[in-house]
Amino acid sequence: MSIDWAFRFNYTPVDYRVYTKGARVWVRDPDEVWIGGTLTKDYKPGGNIEVELEEDGLEKTLKIKSKDDMPPLRNPEILIGENDLTSLSYLHEPAVLYNLNVRFIQNNAIYTYCGIVLVAINPYEQLPLYGEDVINAYHGQDMAGMDPHIFAVAEEAFKQLTRFEQDQSIIVSGESGAGKTVSAKYAMRYFATVGGSYEETQVEKKVLASNPIMESIGNAKTTRNDNSSRFGKYVEISFNKSHHIIGAHMRTYLLEKSRVVFQASEERNYHIFYQLCASTDLPEFKELQLGDPDAFFFTNQGEAPEVVGINDRQQLEDTRDAFQLVGISEETQMSIFRVVAAVLHFGNVEVKPERGDNSSIELKESELCYLEKENENIGILCKLLGIDESQMRKWLVNRKIVTVREVLTKPLPYQHALNGRDALAKHIYAQLFKWIVKQVNKALVPTIKAQNFIGVLDIYGFEMFDINSFEQFCINYANEKLQQQFTQHVFKLEQEEYIREKIEWNMIDFYDNQPCIDLIENKLGILDLLDEECMVPKGNDDNWCQKLYSQHVKKSKHFSKPRTSNNSFVVHHFADKVEYTAEGFVEKNRDNVNDEHLNILRASQYEFVAELFRDKNAKVQDPKKAVVKPMAAAVRTQKQFKKSVGSQDKKSSKEMKKSVGSQFRDSLKILMSKLNSTTPHYVRCIKPNDCKEPFSYEPKRAVEQLRACGVLETIRISAAGFPSRWTYPEFFSRYRVLMLKKEINKSNMRGTAEKILNRLITDPDKYQFGKTKIFFRAGQVAYMEKLRADLLKAACIRMQKTVRGYLQRKRYNRMKAAAIVLQKHVRAMNARRLTRFMRRTRAAIRLQKVWRRYHQRKAYLHIRRAIITIQAFTRGTFGRRYYKEVLRQARATTIQRYTRGWLARRSYQKTRKSIILLQCCTRRMYAKKELKRLKIEAKSVEHFKKLNRGMENKIIELQQKLNQQVKISSQNKEKEEVISKLETKVKEMETREVEMDVLQKKTVVIEDELTKIKRELEETRAERDKLILDMKAAQEQYQQEKDVLEAESDKLRKDVLEKENLLKEQDEKLEGEIKRQVEVGMAELKKELDDERYNHQKLVQDYSRLEQRKQNLEDEIKTLEVQPMERHVVMDAKEGSESGYGTLSTTESEDAESVATEIAEQGQEKASMDMSIFLKLQRRLKDLEKDKKQLEQDLEKKDNVSKGRSDSLENELHNTNLQIQRLREENTKLKGEVDMYKESLEKATKGDTTQAIKVYNQQIEVLNLENEKHRDEIIRLKSEHLTKQHKNSTEVEDAGTNTDRQLYIDQAAEDLNQDGDLEMAYQSLKMTNHLITALSASQSSLHETVHKYGDLAGTQNELLIQKLILEKELQAQTKNHEHEVKQLKEELKKVMKDNNRQQEIIGENLKLKPEDRVNAIAQHEITRLTTENMDLMEQNEYLEKNVKKLKKQLKAAHKKLTSVGELAPSITPTTDSPVALLPNHHEGTPNHGPAVRHKERDLMGIIEYSPDDEPRLIKSIILDFRPKMNDGYLPGLPAYIIFMCIRHADYTNNDQKIKTLLTGVINSIKKTVKKHFEEFEYVSFWLTNTCRLLHNLKQYSGEENFSAQNSDFQNEHCLRNFDLSEYRRVMNDLAVHIYQMLVRIIENQVQQMIVPAMLESDSAGLTANKPTGMRGRSSSSVNNPQQEMRNVSIESIIKQLSIYLAVMNSHGVDPQLIRQVMKQTFYLVTSTTINNLLLRKEMCHWSKGVQIRYNLSELEEWLRTNNMFDQGMENILEPLVQIAQLLQVKKRTDDDVKLICDTCSMLTTTQIVKILSLYTPDEYESRTEMSFIRKVQHRLKNRSDMKREAQLLIDSRHQIPVTFPYNPSSVLLNEIQIPATFNINYVQCI
After folding, report:
1. What CA–CA distance (Å, rounded) separates 1091 from 417?
2. Which H, E and C letters describe 83-138, residue by residue?
3. Which of 829, 1053, 1354, 1841 is 20 to 30 Å from the Cα of 1450, by its Cα?
4. Are 1740 and 1816 in contact (CB under 8 A)?
5. 375's torsion region: left (phi>0), alpha (psi -120 to 50) or beta?
């Protein structure tokens, strides 16, 4: 699409003052239409504008030639996302586009207001916005106070309907695929909900059922929409005086008939054709002879037979179901399908041209044609339509010409024959469409006269395609008319607002499209010329175009001729220029159908087909139905026309047939007159994209539709006037910062506003002062906001300057002080640094000295080493040389020496040998001489002494050496032994190593040899070390084994202790588990009890509502003349309602009465044709059948209960003794098992764990066996109990009617009296009663009592005999009762059979035609069934009473006999007896009455009254009693008085008296609270008394669970003769009903205060008004009730709650019940606040979160003050607390995401996302980003309950189930004093 930039886009006057640097503007863009930019410098008039684009950061220069070239200004950020587009300060096209984009994409808000228009954007996905909770949230709310929604528009229409009794209309328009039908559907659903019940009504179901029908026959696939509606629809929903829906009516406009014979590419024909083709295999469709859609010409042109996502076969099933629901039978449906199939076969009827030999290739217009005889389609369609095939063949290619004297038959040209075939097919389909619409309207017709209606118009929007034909022309013509009406209405509203405020204003110059409408519909207009051309015999499209050119070109500015075409024209519509192709206009406008074709169809053998085309009287035709009539092919004379249609009505034949354009123009006029007579509401549907992607927004498509639907025109009209409007208080609060001190005058805010505006805005035309508001021109609010922002900015700068100066001075002083300290420390540091520097310098010098010395020494040593090296090498050289010389000399010397030595030694040896020989000889000689001398000396003593002098020391030394050698040898031996051992060990290890090597070689294939050697060495060393430490290892092992044994011993001891502890823990755990399971079970039971209580209370509420309805119907019936049967039903219902038990339902009688009333109101003839009455009768029959089944079940249940109670005491005692004996045996056995278990534990503690385990296992096996045994026993006992119960169910004691009961009693009495048994039994029973009474009343000894009565001991046997006689009597009565039960069951079966038969009869009657139904049969069936039902209910009630009575008699008689049997053996004769003191009233009463056993005691706390005084008593203490009369007395005093009267009736054993008393009390309390149902004081008072009476009935019932808290004195005064448990249930239901009334009173008064107090008030002092202009929505009344709640604050709610609390406390309401009332009230506060917050965008900001927190703190403080704040109350308020936290928390980082998800645990995902989407930042706060919302949404996906997480609103109607905790009274009845003000002196206190 190309954007028309000539279209005016800026409606705001240009103000150069705001075009400064930094100003944000909109710049045109060819792709995005508009993009944002920012001015880079100030603009000066006459220059250009420099803009920096936000998309890519590029700079662009805009040339400004005039004010129209100025770029539009962008609205402030705080206005982005507003609910109402007219609330924007700058009103222009880009602002509208951007605001819709932000709301749709970022906030996911599909609805937006634009003045009075609701703009709805199709999201293309299902949203949770249309549930009943949303409907309830919008119901009763002001349109301006809620977020935009289709329900808000519907509520506004409904509210105006109810307040002003004025008809309303909702106009829904938009192009194909924009969601018009869905919006209309939801609007109708809203009306059905608020105008009927909370569920869908029958009317809505039928209307919704018409949707599949209308979609199948009127919708088709187009290039833009797969389910495009090709017709317009206007539905009127009718309401009665009570504003309830009673019916509807639908009108259709301009069906696109051309689609039947032609479809463009990628389009389809109507859905019904493809549905039939897809279901052709069904047996019932065989006769249609259909097949694939591609086989038919009318369905294969678009080449798209299938649609993705649509199952045509299933759609046909839905269509057939819808047909059935609206009353179209199966036979009629088949007739419809035959007609549709015939239309398909029409397309395959081929008309072929007749060609001669000289014919040209192209067909001529006058060339004749024929039909092939082989073409079977014409035969099929004739068979389907039931017409003559030969006639159809003839007149498809021929036409009849009627002249003056004769009738001629002329063949048709080829093209005319084709057009005739197509026209006939279109006409057949159009007639079928009209007939179906008519049938749907019959199903929706109201049964009574409608008071008002709401019309819903679902009509096509402005259309512009590449090729636009006649249909688009008519559609755009209709939109021109609707746009004119819309513009005038908008202008009217603007004018009314200005007049109401009495401001001066000029006429708004708005676009008036009347010239364009005149161009179309005036004389010589487009339609007039088209009709004229259609009347010409050979008129065609080209001639018509030429007439248009000559008549309108250059004469009308709304008409032009295209440059490149002579067969088209251009009309300048309000939305855009549209070029229409003239081809087909004339033919489509004529809609010509051959009269012969119609005559053939009228002669069809099928009545249905003939009825479709039967000629209707044109004069009585309803023009509203827009019936299209064919137009004559040529102009004829009156006589010719009479001859041609002589068989038709003469009067209708005189009138010319209207063209399609004329018909559409007339129907459009009627529609516009209808809309003008109503108050219109507008819904404009927008298609955001053509790809049908969810939440995808294309600006080009949006701006095109906004221009076409008039949204931008609304903006322009608003901008032309005063769009921004502020009340004086709002203006004063917002712009107070701009006021001077001398201008401020709070008492005169208007004067203050005038002063400030006169000073700030110099042009007085920019604003006007009204009575209550200030009106601003467009852009002035933005200018005021700029001044305010500049002033606030300057003030902020000044504040920042002051604060920054203070902070800087503070910082300077702090820095100065710090600098001084720093200087001190720095100087010290510098001194230390200097010292350190000097030290380091000195050290450095010393280091340098050492270093230099070292360096020089190192160099010297290096040189020295070098010199020494050189010297060494030099000296070495010389030395080696010298050495070699010396070596040579030495070697030579050596050689010489050895030689000289050998020579010398040789000479020496010779000399030496000679000398030695001489010496030897000489020495031998001397030796021999010495030897002789020594021998002589040795023999002397002195010689021996000399020898032994040194021997001692030597011996000692040798001894020491010997010892050392011994020691060394021993050590060596030990080492050798160790070495030997090591060697053996090494050898063993080597062998082991060899084995290990072998094993290792198996697992390790390749191993490094070096690694093996190293490992062997290491292992050898390890083994050696191990051998060395072998002894130590052995010792350690021994020690370890010893420790292990000791540890095992300790462990065994510990195991024993642990097992003991484990057993204890298991016992504790089992106890805890049992306790937990009990708690869980109790919690589940409590939850189930709460659910049951809630359902029960809801039933009580429904019962009270139905009872009220019954009472109203009774009042109406009394004023009318009714039949005797009806009076009987009313009387019975009334008696049942006064019985006090509340068991008789009145719903059935009410339904019967309502049907009878409808028949009486509508009349016999009309009622016989009303489908709704027969549907009610059918539903009524089903209800009666259910009731009879329920009655039979009740009888069986009561039989079981009665038989169970009538078992003999002997059997019960025997069974009890057996059970006790069995329990004792089991107890003994269990004790033995416990002892055995203890012994096993003791053995285990001593170490015998094995024995303990065995014993434990044995115990487990024994317990399992016992468990199985007990389980089998339980199963056996249960089966015996069920068998016994089943057997007893047939032997239950019951009663029948009065006659039957008397007969059976008389018969039993005769049988018993044959032998005198009855008389004997009677005397014995009477004597037994006297005896029991005497024993109870007398305080004398037993001896005296027996003596007074005589020899009663001897009569023991007689008593036993009498007991047996009584048992026989009871058995006889039981048999009689069995016979009665059988008869009753047979009667019930007969009634059920009659019911089934009657239901079948009515079902057959429903299939007949309406005129054949007979009302007398239905009336007879209603009368008979209702009478039978009431008789059965009477019998059931009578049987129940007799059963209860007989039970009491049996019980009393059995107790008497048992007590007599126990006392008789101990009775002895005595002389004294107080018989004269005994009462004698038992002698005159029959023996079946309940026995009253009296004791001689002080009976106090009883009020004695006469039965005649009972009405006076009830009237005094209930009906005429005022709560103020009880002030200062005991709370609940009337309840105590009533209970004291009940005690008197119990004391006297008068069941009739107690029944009438309780019934009268219950009914009187109901009447009292019903009379004062809106007075909190009365309802609270009687809630207290009802609960107190209920508690008293429980407290003095004698039941153990209630009497446990009583004192002994109170237990003595318990009720003795009557069981009032049933009355307690009735009283409980009555208390629930009164509680609900109390809650409703609080809700009605508090609910309207919640939103103003919790959300709208500013109690916390946080004013956060936004500069929206506060335009406000159109209110439904001038005096809006919402305005009265402006001054409501949280203190108002607290004050009201305090009043309620004070009243309930003064009346003595139970504290727990008060808590429940407040809990329900605070639940209402929470739910209403949250629901309203979720539907109001302006409430979702930070300041509102603070306000909610403040209000909650006030409420919590009030609760704590009154001691009502507990965990339950905290849970009720927690969602609201989390809402406030969500509004206040930051919304930026991932930590914020986590915090939100963790904090808002009680809010659903939908609620959190909704609030984040609606969140509106304050003035200086940034907007929440979509990425942040998506992160939150993604994190919340892990929640489990998806159904709950999808919930948006909270059900504010939910009621927390109420309980009445038992609260016994400590008040003694004898201490109660009755004040004289009660005026009951006629009663006596005992």
Report:
1. 74
2. CEHHHCCCCEHHHHHHHHHHHHHHCCCCEEEECCEEEEECCCCCCCCCCHHHHHHH
3. 1354
4. yes
5. beta
Q: What is the pLDDT of residue 1340?
A: 39
| Contact (CB, 8 A) for 1163 and 1253 | no
Tokens at 1133, concatenated = 């219902």
Count of CB atoms within 10 A of residue 724's CB? 28
Q: Collapsing DSSP states into helix, strand and coil, what is residue 408?
A: strand
Backbone angles phi, psi at 1864, to 5 degrees: -70, 150
Q: What are phi and psi of 1095, to 5 degrees?
A: -65, -40
What is the DSSP code string of 217-241?
A: HHEE--SS-TTEE-SEEEEEEEE-T
DSSP letter assigned to residue 774: E
Compute the distance between CA of residue 82 and CA of residue 110 in angstroms, rounded to an integer. 13
User: Which pair of tokens denotes residue 624?
Assistant: 């509203």
Radius of gyration of the chain (CA): 58
Closest CA to 298 of 431, 474, 421: 421
Q: Which residues pair with 61 in a beta bridge?
A: 50
- 1131 alpha carbon, distance to own chain's centre: 45
The phi, psi pair for 1248, rounded to 5°, reads -85, 70
Asked if 720 and 510 count as a contact pair (C-beta separation under 8 A), the reply is yes
Give the pLDDT band of residue 1424 (cuts 50, 70, 90). Answer: low
Strands 679-686 and 117-121: parallel
Residue 157 DSSP SS3: helix
Average pLDDT over residues 872-895: 92
Classify each residue of 839-860 as buried b or exposed e, where b means 16 or more C-beta atoms within 10 Å of its C-beta. Answer: eeeeeeeeeeeeeeeeeeeeee
Q: In this structure, are residues 1879 and 1602 in contact, taking their beta carbons and an 8 Å threshold?
A: no
Q: Mean pLDDT over all residues of the chain?
A: 76
173 touches 684 (CB < 8 A):
yes
869 pLDDT band, cuts 50/70/90, is: very high
pLDDT digits 0-9 by tens, 1340-1391: 333 443 344 344 434 444 544 555 555 666 666 667 767 777 777 777 777 6
- The amino acid at 1589: L
CB-count burial class (<10 Å; 0-12, 13-18, 19+) for 1743: middle
Alpha helices in 1163-1248 (DSSP H): 1164-1168, 1171-1205, 1209-1245
Residue 53 DSSP class: E
- Answer left, alpha or beta for residue 1163, where phi above 0 means left and psi between -120 and 50 means alpha: left
The answer to whether 544 and 533 have CB atoms below 8 angstroms apart is: yes
**Residue in 1474, 1472, 1473, 1479 with CA at minimum distance from that of residue 1494:** 1479
State the alpha helices, DSSP H only, in 127-246: 132-138, 150-164, 180-195, 202-218
pLDDT at 1716: 92
Q: What angle do CA 445, 450, 454 make, to 5 degrees?
A: 85
Q: Among 576, 382, 581, which Cα is nearest to 470's?
A: 581
User: SS3 breakdown of the chain: % helix, strand, coil, rounded to 5?
Assistant: 65, 5, 30
Strand partners, 215: none
Give the global pTM: 0.60
Q: What are phi and psi of 1045, to 5 degrees?
A: -65, -45
What is the C-alpha to C-alpha distance for residues 1778 and 1802, in angstroms, rounded to an integer? 8
What DSSP line would sit under 1070-1109, residue for residue?
HHHHHHHHHHHHHHHHHHHHHHHHHHHHHHHHHHHHHHHH
Amino acid of residue 1201: V
- DSSP β-bridge partners for residue 468: 580
**Angle of CA points 1373, 1378, 1382, to nearest 5°:** 150
Q: Which residues share a beta bridge with 352?
A: 370
Reference 268, options 243, 238, 312, 298; nearest CA is 298
Averaged pLDDT for residues 63-78: 80
Write the single-letter amino acid at 6.
Answer: A
